[in-house]
Amino acid sequence: MTKASLWMVDADVVTEAALQRWRGWLSPGEMARHQRFVRAQRQRQFIIGRVLLRMALGRLLAVTPQEIRLEEQVGKAPRLVAPVRKGETTGFSIAHSGRWVACAVSAQTALGLDIEMKDASRDLHALAAQAFDSAEMAQWARLQTLPEPERVEGFYRLWSEKEASFKLGVAAGGHCWSLPHAELSVALCSELPLDRAPALELITLE
User: Fold this and answer.
1) How many domains does the chain have?
2) C-alpha separations of 104 from 66, 94, 99, 113 in Å
3) Which domain range does residue 122 map to?
4) What CATH number is associated with residue 36?
5) What does pTM read for this prediction?
């Protein structure tokens, strides 16, 4: 069975004391990257994302979060250094948008995850023209006949699936799921087909 787990946390409820404690979990490379972020919100998202990932991988691999070792890669997602198990493909992906931070993990397949706040105030036509290819633009054009709430929902579904597929990085685009959330468009793509859509778990980090 090919499965994936998807964890999400509301970063606004995480305390400064917890953030300070978790800094000790990060590798020197992660700390260096954290310090390069100028905005405090992005620094916060980075720490929470790496802690959430360690907790999810810890459960998946039956180790403590502190035993998870990650290595930074320039322009890429981090690489899992330990524990690495022979014959297993440990896939994972991290995403953030607004106050939400999420990660997906699997012991069987590579993953790409994206989350996007469904913000109707943005210029969706300009964003589509800038980012979508011809096939995506055709889908966006078909959405123009729908009421605004459905049109916004459809735009962010296209956007998040495109980003998740890009993060997965396989030529065929993989197998993608769109998952329901009140505030977010959530897309998860996998290299191998999943047996079922993963449940979206809201986690409290402390």
Assistant:
1) 1
2) 18, 7, 17, 7
3) 5-202
4) 3.90.470.20
5) 0.94
